[in-house]
Specification:
Blueprint lengths: L1 H17 L5 H6 L3 H11 L5 H23 L4 H22 L4 H15 L9 H13 L15 H12 L5 H17 L6 H12 L1
Helix pairs in contact: 1-4, 4-5, 4-6, 5-6, 5-8, 7-8, 7-9, 8-10
């Protein structure tokens, strides 16, 4: 019985995962948690079952994140926030629907890296946009000026922004912008404080 079941699962896996109407992408987009958990449980019985599912998950991540990049071309200042939200959604899917499986984490990271390094329209490219977003948080501001950060604290915002740094391929370009902005904040007395600055540096070095 087990052999027959595994044979059926293996022979239909590609069709099931790639189905345009009810495939993996549809389940992920609709956050069909119970269906995804069932899919994970079933394909974990196959030697390469989860590897195939993770491959499809990577494609979904790449497509969705690329869509964010494309839709934000005319609004570069909103791009970083959009990417942060999208990454958080992917992480939730991995944790809650795939039991935090490293195979799916690696697929998520690979797909997100590919998408987040596409060319951005405008004068500023991804390394500078990311650096500007971090500089905005690290600058000294009146308390009322921080209302625009929403419910996140400056520390949480720093953590979210620096998490995107991991996926950046042009890290040398980012580091050059970061050093210049750090020098300006310190020399002109615009830094939001040593604790925030240290948090940012520690996250970037992690």
């Amino acid at each position: 019985m087990k052999v027959c079941e595994e044979g059926l699962l293996a022979s239909t896996q590609e069709d099931v995962l790639s189905d345009a109407g009810d495939g993996l992408a549809t389940l992920l987009k609709g956050y069909a948690r119970h269906d995804l958990l069932r899919l994970y449980r079933l394909y974990s019985r196959l030697p390469e079952g989860l590897a195939s599912a993770a491959k499809h998950f990577r494609g979904y991540v790449t497509n969705e994140a690329t869509g964010v990049m494309e839709s934000s071309k005319s609004k570069p200042k909103q791009l970083i926030d959009s990417l942060i939200k999208t990454l958080a959604q992917f992480e939730r899917l991995v944790d809650e629907c795939f039991h935090g499986d490293n195979l799916f984490k690696e697929s998520m990271n690979s797909g997100f890296e590919q998408a987040s390094n596409v060319m951005v329209q405008g004068k500023k490219k991804m390394p500078e946009l990311l650096c500007d977003a971090l500089d905005h948080i690290l600058r000294k501001k009146p308390t009322t000026a921080r209302i625009g950060l929403g419910m996140d604290t400056p520390e949480e915002k720093i953590d979210s922004i620096t998490k995107l740094f991991v996926f950046l391929r042009d890290k040398d370009v980012f580091n050059e912008f970061y050093r210049k902005q750090l020098a300006k904040r310190l020399l002109l007395g615009r830094s939001g404080g040593d604790e925030l600055e240290q948090r940012g540096l520690s996250n970037l070095k992690a």
